[in-house]
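Page 42, continued from yesterday. The earlier attempt failed because a stray header line got pasted into the input along with the sequence. Redoing it now with the clean sequence only.
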Amino acid sequence: MMLPLAISHTLPLTDPVLKFLIILVIIIAAPLLLNKLKIPHLLGLIIAGAIIGPYGLNLILRDSSIILSGTAGLLYIMFLAGLEIDMGDFKKNSGRSFVFGMYTFLIPMGLGIIAGYYLLHFSMDTSILLASMFASHTLIAYPIISKLGIAKDKSVTITVGGTMITDMLALLVLTVIVGMATGQIGKHFWTQLSISVVVFVLFIILLFPLLSRWFFKRVQDSISQYVFVLIMVFLGAYLAELAGIESIIGSFLAGLSLNRLIPRSSPLMHRVEFIGNAIFIPFFLISVGMLIDYRAFFTSFDTVKVGIVMIIVATLAKFAAAWLTQKTFRMSADQRRIIFGLSNAQAAATLAAVMVGYNVILGQTPDGQPIRLLNESILNGTILMILVTCTMASFSAQKGAHNIAAHNSSQEEKESSRQQERILIPINNEDTAEELINLSLATKSKKNSQYLYALHILDNQASANEQQLKKSHRLLENAALNAAATDTHLQKLMRYDLNVTNAILSTILEHKITDLILGLHKEKGIPGSFLGRITEGVLEHSDVTTFIYKPAQPLSTMKRHLIVVPAQAEKEAGFNQWVERIRQVIQNTGAKTIFYASSETGEKLKSIFKTESGKTEFIKFSEWEDFLIVFRDVHPNDNLWIIMSRSNGISYTQQMNKIPVYLNKYFQQNSFILIYPFQVNAVPNRYFI
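This time it went through. C-alpha cells are written below.
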C-alpha cells in the first residue's frame, strides 16, 4: 500500500500546488471584494502580493517561478498594448506620441536631477540614474483601458507610443551611466548599440509579419496559433535583450508587427486577451506587490525621506507632462486623466533600473561596507514609490476611462436606433464554414452578440441517415464554438426542406434577417451559372444585403481590401448598411482599404470614412468596361470586394454581367466578396419561387 505524501505547511510554503491555489484564489477574490469598494482590482492584486509576500505573512517567496510568471505578465501587457493599438491612429498620432514622449522624459529627468543632487545630496551619476527611473513608466493600468473598450482613443494611442520613446531613452541612460561607472564604455559603444538596435527593429517589423502571415495561412488549429503568438512575444523580448535594450520594447514591437494579422473580432484575439487578463497579468501585479517591504518605512528615516521625495517628484513630473500634452493637443480632462494614469505608474523599467544600480558597487567604506551606485534607501524608496504611483495611476485611469466609455456608449446608442442587425450564414461545406463565420464576426457591429444564425439544410425527401445528421450537428456545433470564442452567441438552425433556396428564403422571413452571408459553390470547371443555382434563386427572390464570399485564404491574413463601387451607389437604400459592414472590417482587421469609385461616390465615401483616413485610399474609377484595370492592381494577399446591384437598381450597369467571367479567369488565386445591397422593391413577388 502506498503511503500518502508528506505535505509541509511550514512558512514559506513550498508545495507548488498550494502556492498556485492561493494565487488563483487571490486573482478571483480581489476583483469581487474591491469592486464593491470601487477600488481598481489591479491595486488589490498588488496589495495582496504584499500581504502574502516575504515581507508580509511570508506565505510565498518571490522565487524563480513567481519572477518568471511576473516577467511573462509584464511582456504580455506590452504585447497587448501593441496588438490592440489602432495602427492608422498610431501612424497619424506618431508626431503627438513623440511630443508626449519627450515631455514625459525630459520633465522627470530635469526635476529628478535637481531633486537628487540638491535635495538628497547624491552624486551626479546617482542623480541622473534616479531621474531616469522617474522618466520611465509601466502601462500597469492598461488592462482597465482595454476592458472598457477605449484602447483606440487617441489619448491611449499617444500614451502608448510615448511610453516606447521614454522607456527606451530611460533605459539608454541606465546603460550609459552604468557603463561609465564600471568603465565599460569604449569608443565603439555608440556604434555597436546603434547598429544592434536598428537591426533588431527592422528584423521584427519586417520579418515577424511575413513569418506570421505564412503560419496563419497554413495552420488553422487554434491551440497552435495561440502558442505561435506566445513564441512571437518571447522571441521579440529576447531579441531586444540581445540588442542591448529592455525586453518590454521587443514584446511591444511584436504586438505592433502582429497587429493587422489578429483581427479585433477574431477568436484568436479573444484567446490572447482572455488568458493574459486571467493568468499572466495578475501574476505580474502580485509579483510587484511581493517586493513591498513595509518594515523599511519604520526603521529608517532616510528611506521615508527618499521615498517621499521620489513620490512627489515622479507624480509632479508625470502630471506636468500629461497636462502639457492635454493643452498642446486640446484634449479633454478625462483624456488627461488617462494619460496621467497610464504614465504615472512606476514598476517594470523602474525596478530594472534600481536593481541594476543597486548591484553596481563603486567601492567600499572604511568599515568595509559596499558603496553602491543606488543605495538601500533608494531601493526601499523605490518600492514605496511603486505602491503609491500604481495606486494613483489606477484611480486616475479608471475615472477617465469610465467617463469616456460612458460617453462613447451614449453616442453608439444614438447611432443604433435603426433596425436590429441579424446575420444569417447558411453552411454546408466544412472547408469554408469557419471563414464564413469569421466574415460575419468581422462585419457585425460590436453590440450584436445575439443575432447570428448558422443554418444547415437537409433534404426532407431523402431519409436523413445517422451520418448526415452527425455531419449537420458537427457543422453547427463548430460554427457555434467559433463564434463563442469571441463571446458571441450563434443560434444553430437545422431545417428540412424540398428546396435549399426555399429554406434560406423562409429562414430570412422567420428571423427578420438583414444580412445574408453565402459561400461560393465548389463546382469544378466553369458551371452554367457562376454564382450557382441556389445563390441566384436567393438573389432573385430576396432583397436583404447579401455577401457572396470565396475565401482563398483566412481573412486575417489579408494585406489590403480593394473595394469596387458602382456610380450612384450612394443613392441606393442599402448604401449605409454595406458601408457600415465595411467600416467594421476596416476596424477589426486594420488592413489598408482602397476604394475604386466615381468622383461623386468617392466624395461621399471620403466624408464617411474620414475618421479612418490613415487606412483608406480612394482611386477614381467609373468605366466598368475597363474593369480589368482593377485586376492589374491586385497583389497576393489582397481581398477584392465588388459592390453589385440587382437589375432594377439605380447603380446597375450591364458591365456587371461580365464580372463572373473576369473573376473566374483572372482572380482564382485570391479571395473575393460580392455584395448585393438591400434595395427597396427589388423583388416584386418576394419569397415565392
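Notes: The longest strand covers residues 452-459.
Reminder to self: strip header lines before submitting.
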